[in-house]
Amino acid sequence: MEKLIITAAICGAEVLKEHNPAVPYTVAECAREAKSAYDAGASIIHLHVRRDDGTPTQDKARFREVIEAIRVACPGVIIQPSTGGAVGMTDDERLQPTGLRPEMATLDCGTLNFGGDEVFMNTENTIKYFGRRMIELGIKPELECFDKSMIDMALRLHRKGFIAAPMHFDFVMGVNGGIGGELRDFLFLRGSIPAGATYTVAGIGRHEFPLAAAAIIDGGHARVGFEDNVFLSKGVLARSNGELVEKVARLAAEFGREVARPDEARAILGLPLL
After folding, report:
1. Quick one: which of 237, 171, 236, 235 has its CA closest to 204?
2. What is the β-pairing status of strands 49-50 and 56-57?
3. Is residue 43 part of a domain?
4. Beta strands 44-47 and 231-233: pairing type?
5. In this structure, is residue 127 part of a structural domain?
6. How, if at all, do strands 6-9 and 221-224 pair?
7. Alpha-carbon span 57 to 63, nearest angstrom
8. DSSP label at 67?
9. What residues make up the domain containing 120?
10. Is residue 274 part of a domain?
């Protein structure tokens, strides 16, 4: 079985210090949290950025500043900027970090009702636009799928030439408006991707560690981090992203799965080695 790729989603666009004081906003805090995750075994840092007051931004200059700090703190780590941004941002605003030509970036594959009046918009034309840009810039997309229909959309647009192979999916499970986070839901998504594709599972809240365990056993990969869950266990706040990664690494050890370092993750994902 392949080694396990652990992704750390260190901050997200929605979670705040009010939820957990360790959530990073500043450049130094992002570097600190990335290093805690890297030292614990994460080979990918999934990255949103904030202003120092916690306001989410897709500003290219802010991404550059944070990425440079993370590269110093975490030599060789794969940095995966989000093109999801935050609800209400325009397509071009969201795409700004792709101008830095990262190895990977996220590509959301459908629209989602986040709750109340919040709608995370990703029209078919948006997905085509993002996919075409990533092909042009040589960026590998991580296909963010919050439901089965989004996998179907990604496969259809792959056949039309907007998404390159080999495909790598991220099943984001347990989000309001998307698929649930139960084992049956995982098996449904897992059975819907083609042979030769790889996948990561991101379970939200209480689903984080059970779904990580399912992915470990199945041969997939796992994402944890403050974007998805701020608790180490019920009622116990994680002190860092590293604590969340450490827990997944312990699960992997229990199931006899080695954890991949960044260059091993690149080989698994078909990325050029540094």
Report:
1. 171
2. antiparallel
3. yes
4. unpaired
5. yes
6. parallel
7. 9
8. H
9. 6-269
10. no
Give residue 116's pLDDT: 87
pLDDT at 115 over 90: no
User: d(Cα 122, Cα 83) in Å, to the nearest integer?
Assistant: 11
Cα separation, 15 vs 99, in Å, equals 26
* 75 and 40 Cβ atoms separated by less than 8 Å: no
Quote the CA–CA distance of 172 and 268 in Å, as a whole number.
20
Question: Which CATH number characterizes residue 150's domain?
Answer: 3.20.20.70
Predicted local confidence at residue 274, as pLDDT: 79
Contacts of 72 (CB under 8 A, 6+ apart): 31
> Is 1 among the domain residues?
no
Domain count along the chain = 1
* pLDDT average, residue stretch 114-137: 95
Single-letter amino acid code for the residue at 196:
G
Q: Which amino acid is located at 183 in the chain?
A: L
Helix (H, G, I), strand (E, B) or coil at 149: helix
Query: Residue 248: CB partners within 8 Å, gap ≥ 6?
Result: 4, 6, 41, 209, 212, 216, 222, 224
CA nearest to 43, candidates 73, 8, 3, 72:
8
- Burial letters 46-57, b for 16+ CB under 10 A, else e: bbbbbeeebebb
CA distance 257 to 269: 17
Tell me which residue has tokens 């347990």: 174
- Residues 145-200 have pLDDT tens digits of 999 999 999 999 999 999 999 999 999 999 999 999 999 999 999 999 999 999 99
pLDDT digit string, tens, across residues 69-110: 999 999 999 999 999 988 889 999 999 999 999 999 999 999
40-58 pLDDT tens trace: 999 999 999 999 999 999 9
Give 259's DSSP letter. B
Residue 1: per-residue pLDDT: 87
